[in-house]
Amino acid sequence: MFDKVLVANRGEAAVRIIRALKEMGIKSVAIYSVADRDSLHVQLADEAVCVGASRPSDSYLNIKNIISAATGTGAQAIHPGYGFLSESAEFASLCAACGLTFIGPKAETIDQMGNKEHARQLMIKHKVPVTPGSRDFIKSPEEAKKVAAEVGYPVLLKAAAGGGGKGIRQVKEPGEMADAFSLAQNEARLDFGNDQMYLEKVLTNVKHIEVQVIRDSFGSCVYFPERDCSLQRRKQKVIEESPCELISESEREKLGQIAVRAAEAADYLNTGTIEFLMDQDHNFYFMEMNTRLQVEHTVTEMVTGVDLVKAQILVAAGEKLPFKQADLGFKGNAIECRINAEDSSRDFMPSTGQVDYLFLPVGNPGMRIDSALYQGMVVSPFYDSMLAKIIALGSSRQEAVARMQRLLNELVIRGVKTNKDFHLAILADSEFKQGTFTNTYLEREFLPRWKEQVDKHEAV
């Protein structure tokens, strides 16, 4: 087992990992930027090293400085968390070259699965169902039109190296293809340094379902109960829950077996997430694999009682998984709300400043808050706006939602604007209560009503 691990992240993600390391008796090294000098993760770690200026490119994406911090402090491994360098094959490869264990999959796997079209081809080869679309990279608008004519409009042009909703354009008819192809390709080139594109048919009225898997170096692979991540705004998840209300036990087992097949096809190591679309007939289609810990891993931990971060560390240290598939049934329903520093009444404009007062209503069973917040801290404009993850567990979905509503109503964050009221409105929505919402529901139906309510309130 490791004696010391460097955490190559910040904020809530770094705090989460440092706490797991402490419980395992492993020393932790935090990295921080100039802007994060007084951050909670810096205060909690056994050691801390400044790796650069405030901009992420100067600090949390500065591979050279991060590896120097790890070797200089005697760390044996690096946990990348999620975001930043967590899916960088270059970073994972350099860790190995420097004698450091990367707590995650192998660099070759990150590279293979990070290229969405390569991942599609691998899944097709191993009989994992994929969304209808191109069989190879699309090199021109004309080629894209031919494929679109075969699978049917509307279609999505997607960056092969994409993520986070970048490098994606929907095309509804042939006349839109040239401009959409150019825009998506240029965005992909700027954001990912890779302008390879592929095409998929748009599946309508679908659920966004994902399955957490973990595989050790002995070939043992297990899947966890699925997560419903269909509530999204601008391709970013807003609320996540586990399990999905609409999936039966037999479908859950079938989906899990598909996810394990996908992981084994990639010779996967450590934890990852297979993302699927589920149509109205409950057919599942592979979208992509995220080769890292997910932000929403918390709901999986709540429903199973498994600490995924500790499991990651054990697998990276060469140990066997401490649980079997039979141990991973769900123990209730869990839901997560992402609390962001943004003004949801002003088109979700980012909010920055000092947190003047803070009350986190924790302490009761079935409730959890993951955050790096503390009273007096300054919310910086340099990084992601997420302040906290609020998670509630109940014996039923109804109880989990009721607990979440209580948590949100009692939560107090003053000094910056948050999207708390937006979450409360979603939880009170009839479509949400039924669990029948799809991946377009939030933007197409709920948000227009929300904006109308906000406008009426301001007019009073």
From TrEMBL:
One of its GO terms (biological process) is fatty acid biosynthetic process. Keywords: ATP-binding, Biotin, Fatty acid biosynthesis, Fatty acid metabolism, Ligase, Lipid biosynthesis, Lipid metabolism, Magnesium, Manganese, Metal-binding, Nucleotide-binding. It comes from the Bacteria. This is Biotin carboxylase. Residues 1-447 form the Biotin carboxylation domain. The lineage of its organism: Bacteria, Bacillati, Bacillota, Bacilli, Lactobacillales. Its EC number is 6.3.4.14. It catalyses: N(6)-biotinyl-L-lysyl-[protein] + hydrogencarbonate + ATP = N(6)-carboxybiotinyl-L-lysyl-[protein] + ADP + phosphate + H(+). This protein is a component of the acetyl coenzyme A carboxylase complex; first, biotin carboxylase catalyzes the carboxylation of the carrier protein and then the transcarboxylase transfers the carboxyl group to form malonyl-CoA. The keyword Lipid metabolism applies. Acetyl-CoA carboxylase is a heterohexamer of biotin carboxyl carrier protein, biotin carboxylase and the two subunits of carboxyl transferase in a 2:2 complex. SMART domains: Biotin_carb_C (SM00878). SUPFAM superfamilies: Glutathione synthetase ATP-binding domain-like, PreATP-grasp domain, Rudiment single hybrid motif. One of its GO terms (molecular function) is metal ion binding. It comes from Lactobacillus delbrueckii subsp. bulgaricus. Residues 120-317 form the ATP-grasp domain. It is an enzyme of class 6 (ligase). Pathway: Lipid metabolism; malonyl-CoA biosynthesis; malonyl-CoA from acetyl-CoA: step 1/1. The keyword ATP-binding applies.
